[in-house]
Amino acid sequence: MKKEFTITVYTENQIGLLNRIAIIFSRRKINIDSLNTSPSEIEGIHRFTILVVETEEVVRKVCRQIEKQVEVLKAYFNTEDEIVWQEMALYKVSTDMITEKVKVERLLRECGARTIAIRKDFTVFETTGHRAETDKLLQVLGQYGLIEFVRSARIAIIKTSLGFYEKLKEFEKAAPSEDVKENEFLNKQDEVFTM
């Protein structure tokens, strides 16, 4: 049965990686509902948060395929119950319309929104929450001549995770890299490369 899965991918920040990951989804005919990329808790490592509606078996296979990319360190998938997530939305409404017909303060309190810009011709509101919460304000403002609306991609934190950085440190303890060995001929160029 298909349901929402949030895929979290830790990667090096390399040109073309986003395209290669998107191709993995398009080859399997999986629609990406939202995609966010950002720096992670580890310097130099980026985090992709991808929302899809698919079966667990297919999502598991996609994560394995993503991990085959050289720049990908790890890919996780989680259900909605296993993560803490939010989306942000912005709403632009005519200032005249909103001040004449709506009790703005009450509306903001009810929807957990705040005003971030007030201009003569328009006002911009912002709210953060789950999809149902951002949709609630969208429906209310739709009645008052909503000019523009945009919602961000999902951002999520895995509830049970120690964090990728901690797992990386554990991995390095369990399987430390070998000591770097110097090339014995490095300082003997004249002896090795003679004609």
Rg over CA atoms, rounded to whole Å, is 24 Å
What would CATH call the homologous superfamily of the largest domain? ACT domain
Reading the helices and strands in chain order gives EHEEHEEHHEEHEEHH
Here the CATH topology of the largest domain equals: Alpha-Beta Plaits
- Euclidean distance between termini CA atoms: 71 Å
The CATH architecture of the largest domain can be given as: 2-Layer Sandwich
CATH class call of the largest domain:
Alpha Beta
Q: Shape, please?
A: elongated
* Approximate strand percentage: 35-45%
How would you describe this protein?
The chain is α+β, with helices and mostly antiparallel strands and 195 residues long. It has two domains: 3-78, Alpha-Beta Plaits (2-Layer Sandwich), CATH 3.30.70.260; 84-151, 2-Layer Sandwich (Alpha-Beta Plaits). 33% of the residues lie in helices and 36% in strands. The protein is built from seven helices and nine strands, in the order E-H-E-E-H-E-E-H-H-E-E-H-E-E-H-H. The chain has helices spanning 17-27, 56-67, 95-101, 104-111, 131-142, 164-174, 189-192; strands spanning 3-12, 32-39, 45-54, 72-78, 83-94, 113-118, 122-129, 146-151, 155-158. The strands form two sheets. Strands 5, 6, 7, 8 and 9 form a five-stranded antiparallel sheet that branches. Strands 2-3-1-4 form a four-stranded antiparallel sheet, with helices on one face. The mean pLDDT is 86.
